[in-house]
Amino acid sequence: MTDRHPLPTRPADIAELYFACWSAGDPEPLRPLLTPDVTFDGVLGSTRGPDEFLEGLRGMFAATTSNDVLLRLASETDVMTWSELRIADKAPMQVVNWTHVDGGRIAAVRVTFDPSPLGAGGTGPGASTAGE
């Protein structure tokens, strides 16, 4: 982002950028939008802090074949995004991503889905990564 394109501050716009970064396979544009103590907790793992968060996203983005947003609901501080995630030749998974925004920055992401299509109990692609 540049001065011509300021960073988003509304939670819905931040979530839109999050998923645009996923489509592009590059989480780095999210760095200035992360609080210093950003957390991620999901079925396959947890991260703490911006570096771990972005590293987790890199791994998940690389493993993703597609992640199609089906619905997004937003309030003043939270966004729920329902998407259909595909990883390699595995069956599609319905995923809910809950992003909490504090002061225009991502403070926490929580993700839930059924990992059984991965054949994983926490050890499949993206284990210990952010942003499933």
What is this entry, summarized?
This protein has helices at 11-24, 50-63; strands at residues 34-42, 45-48, 64-74, 78-87, 93-102, 105-112. It is an alpha+beta fold and 132 residues long.
Layout: helices, strands, pairs:
Blueprint: H1 11-24, E1 34-42, E2 45-48, H2 50-63, E3 64-74, E4 78-87, E5 93-102, E6 105-112
Parallel strand pairs: 1-6
Antiparallel strand pairs: 1-2, 3-4, 4-5, 5-6
Helix content: 10-25%
The global form is: globular
**SSE succession:** HEEHEEEE
Q: What is the overall pLDDT average?
A: 89
Q: Give the tally of structural domains.
A: 1
- What is the CATH third-level topology name? Nuclear Transport Factor 2, Chain: A
Poorly predicted runs of 5 or more residues: 122-132
Strands, count: 6
Taking the sheet with the most strands, its summary is: 6 strands, mixed
Taking the alpha carbons of the first and last residues, their distance comes to: 24 Å
Q: Based on the structure given, which CATH architecture is correct?
A: Roll
> Main sheet: which strands, in order across?
2-1-6-5-4-3
So how many helices?
2
Strand pairing plus helix content: what structural class?
alpha+beta
Question: What is the alpha-carbon Rg in Å?
Answer: 14 Å
Share in β-strands: 35-45%
Classified by CATH, the class is: Alpha Beta
